[in-house]
Amino acid sequence: MHYKKSLISIIIISFSILTVVTTHSLIKKEAKKPIQLNKKSQKYAFLIDKLVSDGFDRTYLLNIVNDSRVKFIEKVLVINLINSDINVDYSRFLNKQSINHAKMFLDKELPFLNKVEKRFKVEKEIVVSILLVESSFGKRTGENTVFNVFSTLSLATKPEILHNTYQNIKEHYSHLSFEEIRERINKKSKWAYQELKHLLTIAEREKLDVLRIKGSWAGAFGIAQFLPSSYLRYGLDGNNDRKVRLFNRYDSMVSVANYLKENGWGKNLSDKKKKSIIRRYNNSISYVDAVLKLSKKISS
Predict the structure, then answer these.
(1) Which residue of 71, 204, 211, 222 is surrounded by the most CB atoms within 10 Å?
(2) What are the beta bridge partners of residue 215?
(3) Do 130 and 234 fall into the same domain?
(4) Number of domains in the chain
(5) Does some domain include residue 45?
(6) Do 83 and 282 contact (CB within 8 A), yes or no?
(7) Same-domain pairing of 126 and 261
(8) At a CB cut-off of 8 Å and minimum separation 6, what does 173 contact?
């Protein structure tokens, strides 16, 4: 009787161990099952391979491009390739309503802006003027998913995409040959790929959902409208929460001031020198003129 009980116990224990081992093996096999690109995302395979070779995690990237929020936006290609040749009218930022808006912001944030001016040696009126022109202090920061902007541009050199883009913009550049337009596209695509890497670095470092970062058609985001490269180089924490969030006005104010300072800003600069520094922020003469004129109007 004792022998039978022992035998039954051994059988039960053996079965239990076998069950645990089998279950563990199944779970392990399931865990090892690689994530695949869905049909919609096949066009991103080349881009993912390139990013992986530059040190990014493949699983992380696959999860991003398989997300329904990821879209290839052909319009972004056209806008980015021809917009640099279009003159933007910034005169609306010099009307009475805009001037009053800037003055109200300046008055409300005066204590903080005084600290910024003292720390960076950048006039508070310049910081306020840039934030107004860039985004109206955060009221219009852009609705484009920044990842989509840079990933679309990064894919522009693929033969089929290059051909379609050429067909869409060749009338605008009728004076250029196909080779010259292709070179223009290649240059923009290389630039966008670098910005895409910076964007992914920001998202990983700050633990952000990269697809929730919205910005302009050019990929600039936040109240200060920084590109990812500018964020990494000049972005600062202004409210002491140990994070750099350019959708926060205090982080944006110190980041703009830091950008200008690091590019050579200081007290008693000539207008010529001021213009050259602001033009690095936005390469538009009319933009530079609007910022300087607005800063003078709100300081008087």
Answers:
(1) 222
(2) 144, 221
(3) yes
(4) 2
(5) no
(6) no
(7) yes
(8) 82, 180, 181, 184
3-state secondary structure of 40: helix
Q: From residue 273, how far is each of 122, 127, 260, 265 by CA, in Å?
A: 13, 16, 11, 8
Residues 164 and 261 in one domain: yes
Note whether residue 41 is domain-resident. no
Interatomic CA distance for residues 62 and 41, integer angstroms: 9
Beta bridge partners of 221: 215, 226
Shared-domain flag, residues 96 and 191: yes
How far is 12 from 6, CA to CA, in rounded Å? 10
What tokens does 159 get? 């033969």
Whether residues 210 and 259 fall in one domain = yes
Between CA 32 and CA 116 the distance in angstroms is: 52
| Two tokens, residue 272 | 């010529």
Give me the sign of the Cα torsion angle 115, 119, 124, 128.
negative
136 in a structural domain: yes
- The pLDDT tens digits of the residues spanning 249-276 come to 999 999 999 999 999 999 889 999 999 9
Q: Write down how long the chain is.
A: 300
Among the listed residues 265, 256, 244, the one whose alpha carbon sits nearest the alpha carbon of residue 133: 256
Is the CB of residue 120 less than 8 Å from the CB of residue 257?
yes
| Amino acid occupying residue 22 | T
**Which structural domain, as residue segments, surrounds residue 260?**
69-299
Give the side-chain half-sphere CA count within 13 A for 257.
26
**Among all chains, which residue has been given the structure tokens 């879209």?**
71
pLDDT in tens, 126-183: 999 999 999 999 999 999 999 999 999 999 999 888 888 888 888 888 888 889 889 9
One domain for residues 28 and 130 = no
